[in-house]
Amino acid sequence: xxxxxxxxxxxxxxxxxxxxLFRIMDNYKRRKIGSKxxxxxxxSWIVLTTGLIFNKYIFDVIxxxxxxxxxxxxxxxxxxxxxxxxxxxxxxxxxxxxEELKGKVTKLNQEIALKDKQKR
Amino acid sequence: MSKKVLDRVAxxxxxxxxxxxxxxxxxxxxxxxxxxxxxKTDLIVVNDGSSDETYELAKKYSTVLNHLVxxxxxxxTRTGLEYAKRNKYKYAVTIDADGQHAPKDLVKIINKLLxxxxxxxxxxxxxxxGKMPINRKFGNNLLSIMTTIFMGVKVSDSQxxxxxxSRKAIEKIDIKTNGxxxxxxxxxxxxxxxxxxxxxxxNAIYTTYSLGKGQTSINALRIIKSIITQKLRxx
Lengths: 120, 235
Known about the structure:
The structure holds 2 protein chains of 2 kinds.
Chain A: H1 5-29, H2 35-53, H3 55-64, H4 75-119
Chain B: E1 6-15, H1 22-33, E2 40-48, H2 54-59, E3 63-67, H3 73-86, E4 89-94, H4 103-114, E5 120-124, H5 134-151, E6 163-166, H6 167-172, H7 182-192, E7 197-201, H8 208-213, H9 217-233
Parallel strand pairs in B: 1-2, 1-4, 2-3, 5-7
Antiparallel strand pairs in B: 4-6, 5-6
């Protein structure tokens, strides 16, 4: 049962999850994010990773405790969940890039204003 | 060789599209500052990427630092404080450009800075609320409570634009936020650096113009969000 739908979901999302965790650690090492941000981001992605790794188990527990009576995972669900994970990754990445660029533009703006004054 | 820290006061005014009132505001301030015979003051306007005549008008009365693009009042204040730091001013006072602060209160802040050992003098509109609109009163109180809870600094008017900085405060407070939330950030960083903070009552002049330019409810929500994220990010 190496290729059942639950495992396919793990295979599809694993690269994104691994890449995210590596990126967070890399940004922390390069001091682009602080320690608290790193902890929060890591915790979020670890929760997501754990949820995806144990997706079959979680589904069984939820069903057996009658919290949901949804049908087992379909191929459509697998694709949809994978895309959602990918979109979460893209959103995090772009938010971070925008913040970084905003910081650079602000700094540039400030330096131009101050240097311009020095010249006169 | 490092330059001597002079006994000069930099009056920093962030301005964005204030052409309607900036000339009058600057004239009134200059008139009041003339009364301070023995204190050297410099008016520094930080034009934050205005698309109107703010830059040209401000140039007639003050030194103007020009942001090419609009970045927000926090960014403009940071540029002004950085200018004060690099040019070795001993004190700096920030004031709004919309004319909501009485020039007499600016002088009060300067006198308090010069005649006391406080590092940060905050002009509080809440100690003398007068004709403050009810929604402003509520918003200011809410943001001050949030600042106390999350930033650990107790003040009655966390969003006041009229603040005085000692040299120590100019050097220690490094503003990172660009928007209106910088007011809370200043207090937080002052508290973290163990700077001595004092509040003095000031009057707020509410005109249709200043009410229109001030903080909106959306801004208040942004400030609350930012206060929480700043705390989490450990800026």
